[in-house]
């Protein structure tokens, strides 16, 4: 009971704090700081100005993909970075909020994009409880993006539980990467 | 298949039963509820050929029968070299005096005949201690259903010795990635006849066998949502049933087969719902900020067990089918999940984590009587009961890759059911097909 209350309070406090931080981040750090950002931009940020992201660079980052056994193709952009979670947690870490504020900028700049947020878990825990946990991870991610001004109509969520690990290993390094919210683009 | 089989097989009680004046209540020779269960030593005589162009059938029947009785944990098969040496040892009816010095307490004597595609097996069972005839039955069917015919013989022997029919005619469905994708498979209780049910190459999860044995409900991601599907055995097809956005997962059938409890999304959060068997009228049972998972219907239809993390960690709870009267059952350990209500209603099996691995436990529905059933170095998950409540199937990594295992309900006699090159999970036990 105590632990749960702390989590809830933590989420609320961090939401409040991070909404203001996120606004600041838009001004101060338009390109983001993550490694994926650097890779995706390729050449030094030419013509990106203060808004940071132009159509060309987003276009260049897009990759057409399909999951085996799941109908339909989708797009993935290396500009949308995964956010990671603690073990059996769905609250957002400061790092996760930083990444989400960058993802929010992309969505606010490209207002036609519709995304799906996938909630993923590591292999520990039961298959079914992890489905519930993945549901919460995708939802807490979506709620934060809504708080940053992204319309909920543009975001669907799905839980894959522990069914789509990014890393196949059975160690903390792999587990940490597998506990994530991942973004795919369903339409542009 | 089971339906057709039921039509084909005619089970004829032989006239010998008439000469059984003491008939009435079956004596229970071994009490399988006893924690100190001692298997009953039984001699199974080689089958006599009563006219068959297929002499190899004698061996096949004996092998299936002996294997059934052994894996149940209720019997010890007396090896042939311990049979009395007398020439009339296997006479029928037996000369009980000859068997007096043997360890065997029961003797099964059978014969078989076949013509064309038809096979007939006769079995007579004798109590060597009381020196009396127990039962005689004749079984007939298509030779291609040999295994099912012999399983019925095993069911009858089990009934005579333990007071309840065996479950040798049952199957266990589970999830395996042996094809490279998570598909649903089914296998017989004795580990034979592995059959692939789904082949949609998607992610298929949480199978649940319907009480009438005709359907397996499961979740699949075919359409980029965890939708609920049915696999129909008669037609060998899958039917999309419930497509609410978000989870439609972890189904548990009501005992009458008219409804299912399952996990569904409500406000970004998994809750327990009930739907009709045609997927309509989702009705929410739990309302909380927390995650709810893994519903399991009580056999009297009145309660639903489930997992909730409302206390801060996943624990096992029960509630009435209207969502009221929520009660927490598990208190020890920081992660208890996958509850499964026993068919007699007296226990709930679940898995609990200790030292990073899951073990199988049972608990009484009132929260008392926690008992740990597995003790091995692997992780043991997803317990499911046999329809007679005497066995529990579960997945275990005890032998390396995750495979399906079966054990007696007291944790004894653990046996690996599957031996595939894949990873197996989420077993679900069929009802009896021999009804």
Features:
A: 188 residues; alpha+beta; 60s Ribosomal Protein L30, Chain: A; 6 strands; 17% strand; globular; disordered N terminus; B: 435 residues; mainly beta; Rossmann fold; Neuraminidase; 2 domains; four-stranded antiparallel β-sheet
Quick recap:
The complex is a heterodimer of chains A (188) and B (435). Chain A is an alpha+beta fold.
Characterize the biggest β-sheet of chain A.
Answer: 4 strands, mixed
Main sheet attributes: strand count, strand direction, barrel closure of chain B: 7 strands, mixed
* Low-pLDDT sequence parts of chain A: 1-51
Strand content of chain B: 35-45%
What would the principal axes of the Cα set say about the shape of chain A?
globular
Based on the coordinates given, report the CATH architecture of the largest domain in chain B: 6 Propeller
Instruction: Please identify the top-level CATH class of chain A.
Output: Alpha Beta
Write down the overall geometry of chain B: globular
Spatial order of strands in the largest sheet of chain A:
3-6-4-5
- How far apart lie the N and C ends of chain B? 13 Å
Helix content of chain B: 10-25%
Query: How helix-rich are the residues of chain A, as a percent range?
Result: 40-55%
- Oligomer designation: heterodimer
Strand element count of chain B: 31
Quick one: how many beta strands of chain A? 6
The overall pLDDT average of chain B reads: 91
Word description of this protein:
The complex is a heterodimer of chains A (188) and B (435). Chain A is an alpha+beta fold and 188 residues long. Chain A has a single domain, classed as OmpA-like domain (60s Ribosomal Protein L30, Chain: A, 2-Layer Sandwich), CATH 3.30.1330.60. Chain A has 6 helices and 6 strands; from the N terminus they run αααβββαβαβαβ. Chain A has helices at residues 2-28, 35-41, 55-61, 94-109, 127-147, 172-178, and strands at residues 62-65, 74-77, 83-84, 114-120, 155-161, 180-187. Chain A has a 4-stranded mixed beta sheet with strand order 3-6-4-5. In chain A, helix 1 (2-28) packs across helix 4 (94-109). The longest helix of chain A has 27 residues, at 2-28. Mean pLDDT of chain A is 80; it is low at 1-51. Chain B has 2 domains: 2-162, TolB, N-terminal domain (Rossmann fold); 171-429, Neuraminidase (6 Propeller), CATH 2.120.10. Chain B is mainly beta. In chain B, strands 1, 2, 3, 4, 5, 6 and 7 form a 7-stranded mixed beta sheet that branches. In chain B, helix 2 crosses helix 4 (146-162). Chain B is globular and about 75 Å long. Chain B is 10% helix and 40% strand. The A-B interface holds A 1-4, 7-8, 67-72, 88, 116, 124-129, 131-133, 135-136, 138-140, 142-143, 156-161, 163-164 and B 181-182, 200-203, 205-206, 221-226, 245-247, 249-250, 263, 265, 268-270, 289-294, 307, 309-314, 335, 337-338, 351, 356, 358, 381-382, 425-426.
